[in-house]
Amino acid sequence: MSWLKRLLAGFADDTEPEPAYGDPLRIAEVTAVIDEMRAMFKADGGDVSLVGIDGGVVIVRLRGACASCEASSITVHKALEPQLRERLAWVESVRRG
Fold first, then answer.
1. How far is it, in rounded angstroms, from Cα 53 to Cα 84?
2. CB 35 within 8 A of CB 84
3. What is the distance between the alpha carbons of residues 15 and 47, in angstroms, rounded to a whole number?
4. What is the mean pLDDT of each run of 10 residues along the chain (97 residues)?
5. Three-state SS sequence of the chain
6. How distant, in Å, are the alpha carbons of 15, 46, 62, 69, 97 from that of 5?
7. Comparing C-alpha atoms, which of 17, 1, 18, 21 is closest to residue 9?
8. CA-to-CA distance for 30 and 14, rounded, in angstroms?
9. For strand 57-64 and strand 46-54, is the pairing parallel, antiparallel, or unpaired?
């Protein structure tokens, strides 16, 4: 195993995320968008999981390399949030939880 893989293994989050909370229909809608974007997150060694939905607020958790990346707020607010707001009229904002 390379030194980089050993280093990154310390940041790995292999635990299964808890089921998301909120309206089941909205969870399905958000999950569909996240699933379409998943390749982008995985290409950078990370992932995103849906924590829940509170009214019009989508709460996500960044995992893997994305969790500790300095650009994670850009990922959430400049990549994920615009996609969700464009496709789902009820989305007001996205935040990390």
1. 12
2. no
3. 12
4. 55 71 97 94 89 97 85 89 97 95
5. CCHHHHHHHCCCCCCCCCCCECCHHHHHHHHHHHHHHHHHHHHCCEEEEEEEEECCEEEEEEEEHHHHCCCHHHHHHHHHHHHHHHHCCCCCEEEEC
6. 18, 13, 19, 16, 27
7. 1
8. 22
9. antiparallel
Structure tokens at 26: 């909205």
Closest CA to 46 of 60, 32, 58: 60
For the whole prediction, is pTM greater than 0.70?
yes
| Of 57, 94, 90, nearest in space to 75 by CA | 94
Residues 41, 32, 13, 53, CA torsion sign: positive
Q: CB count, 10 Å around CB of 61?
A: 18
